[in-house]
Amino acid sequence: MTLPEFPLREDEPLARGFLALGLGSFEAAARHVWSLPHGRNSDPTDFRLVLPEGRGTSGTKHALLAALARAHGQPVELTLGIYEMHERNTPGVGALLEREGLSGIPEAHCYLVVRHQRRVDLTREEPASESTAALACFFEEGPLAPEDLGAPLEERLRAFVRNWAKKRGLDAERVWRTREACRAALGR
Predict the structure, then answer these.
(1) pTM higher than 0.90 for the full model?
(2) CB crowding 97-131: b at 16 or more within 10 Å, else e
């Protein structure tokens, strides 16, 4: 794991939840978040629910850590990558995509970027520094404020899907519905 190592300060509200668990450093906090199961939070826009609910998505887990690092003045940024989701990198979506006549479909994935250069993904089972390689390449990547997990993230992805579908002569709403069906099939 290639993350900055620094102690968590008691005066930072986001740090208190980790400190209460006996986790006194950012690396310990990141390892704990990495160990939590994948699961949608009761409010998918509120990254502060990751610790009390004991689960999170790529968005909420990484937003929590990015906000924690930001509160400590550290160079860790939440990043949104849009990649092509298909059966090889997301087992369980192949049959749905095939039924719709698609080999892949755009999907969002959040991760951290450290010092504007190193990707770190704390949601996959592979080694954290290498797991974004499972997604092969991103169509688009860019920073995302931790507070923008809701409508801003969805609008960025919807705009991308509209453009992607248009270039391929596909109906954007049908592509979006297929994406939603894939997510539902995966329990996301």
Answers:
(1) no
(2) beebebebbbbbbbbbbbeeeebbbbbbeeebeeb
How far is 34 from 122, CA to CA, in rounded Å? 5
> 3-state DSSP helix/strand/coil percent for the chain, to nearest 5?
45, 20, 40
Give the start-end residues of each E strand in 69-147.
Answer: 76-85, 105-114, 118-120, 138-143
Tokens of 146: 């931790």
Residue 157 has a CB neighbour count (10 Å cut-off) of 18
Structure token pair of residue 185: 């099939």
Segment 70-91, tens digit of pLDDT? 999 999 999 999 999 999 888 8
Adjacent-strand bridge partners of 78: 112
Which residue type is seen at 21?
Answer: L
Find the length of the chain.
188
Q: Which residues pair with 26 in a beta bridge?
A: none
